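## Example pair
The file below holds two records. Each record gives the amino-acid sequence first, followed by its structure token line.
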Amino acid sequence: MKSNDNVMLTIDIPGLKKLRSGKVREIFDLGDRLLFLATDRISAFDVIMPTGIPQKGRVLCSISKFWFEKTAHIIPNHVLETEFEQFPPQLQPYRQQLEGRAMIVKKCEPLAVECIVRGYLAGSGRKEYKQSQTVCGIKLPAGLRESSELPEPIFTPSTKAQSGHDINIPFEEAVRILGQPLAERVRDASLAVYKWARAFARERGIIIADTKFEFGTLPGGEVILTDEVLTPDSSRFWPADQYKPGLSQPSFDKQFVRDYLETLTWDKTPPGPELPPRIVAKTSEKYLEAYRRLTGEELLRNA
């Protein structure tokens, strides 16, 4: 494990094959299952920062667990086990490293389309709207301002380029990639989960402006929700009590880090700059506050 000041940046587990190391997650092969683990890495502009964020991985894992349980009535998901006591014997020596930041999940075939739902005008959608009054090619009413709520949430799929950047695609392209029944299934599931979760979060003081879902298929063809779900990394979370259309919103997500990086002369290519202690501390607070608002509980630290 590579870490500093109780921050986990990467981990290797003797005897386990690491299948993938993403921007945040490490995925290990458990034979007929997978171990998903969230590190404390943070990325911005598709570059992993050299500085980790304390508690971030545990927040991401705990929020995903929370939403997977809450939305299972809408669509099944890949979670098999989240309680460390139920992890297999070979993982028991690694309690301190794994507890609270790992889950055991089903193996599935990931879909080649990322499923994005937008409920508010922000980010790249706002830039496109200013030019053409569309978001990902979908025509929207005139007069929308920055951070305006859209008349209805819209489904805007994307794919990954080899560079790692998301490329927005029209729904027709998603149909070409997935086939019409599957494309419609994940579109409908994405919109249903987003609308349900948005209403739930709003009652707890958080606006979920947009989010990204990932899906996979089991050997029998069943579609399941995978990866992470409705976290501050995969979504824009805004404090509802400070919401003011027409402005850029304060947030619980890593937009805070992006905003800081925009003040630097960094060219947004690796390596990323070290983050100063005040940015690290404030970002950790934002992740913990998101968990606290959504669940009504404090995230307990590892002993």
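Second record, same layout:
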Amino acid sequence: MSTAAALSKLEEAIKARFPDLQPHFHSGISEAEFMRLEGQLSPYRLPRECRDLYEWHNGAREPLELIPGYSFLSLAEAIDEYRMQLKIFGGTEGFNPLWFPLFSFQGDIYAVVLSSEGTNRSPVYLSFNQDTEIRLMYSDFDTLLAVSTRCFESNAYFLDDGYLAEDEEKVERIKSEFGEAAPVEHVDGESSFSKFFTQSWPESWKSAIGRTDEDYVAKGADNTVAEYKSDPKRSRLHVAITGVLGTSSHTILDIRDETGQMSVLCLNTAVGAREIQISRHYEMEVEPSREELSPHESCEGVVRHVLLRE
């Protein structure tokens, strides 16, 4: 079944069960308007199935939702949500530029995957705002539509005090009918990915944040903390993290090895910056503090690259 046909079937199920909700759909957008808005995501493009979605209906007003609890965003709203997620969590880790939100609730999103070349289909992931993982929920968007249709038809989705709700047991049984019982297994054998420890990310995700396999290869320390402190110059150190003090833009790290300890400034834009946890060992590239970082004079260096060692 095509995505357009699956959307039509879903609308029929909603209209049959909840005729008062069906008028809450927004009108669909034209192909030209879709292309104009999609251009704001350059150099990335949405999967073809998303064009079908927004040409069908460009979002919906509450309480109509395709997944209970998650607003069906218009394409313009989805782009705004995407930009907000990038602004808050973006960088080298935390939120990947390829994750595009279709449905949202207070920062929790169901997302498809963008690509530079354009694809027909995408897996659907669920990212909770405060969670450290992004979870694969559906192998493709059409399966999400089929599950949602079946949930409307079977009363797994119902109205509770005027809002759409779900019977979780019924929903899981329906997902299992489509081979989508949680957790879904990723094509690479993964059902979820850490948002911050990026080594297991698919190659396209790594590329989107400027990382390559070379970034995860230990190169070996060329200096100790004591040697760096006596002669500050760009160095690779093997250290443990003993203290972390973070802000929205940077983190102050207390690091140590067997020769001594010091404090360094780690900007959130540094490669691997968001992968830092206390009580782990890292290989990191450190260079002397620059003049523009004078508010952090107590720091004896700036971190450029972080590699998890153990």
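Notes on the second record: The chain has two domains: 3-208, 225-308. Residues 225-308 form a domain with the OB fold (Dihydrolipoamide Acetyltransferase, E2P) fold (CATH 2.40.50.140).
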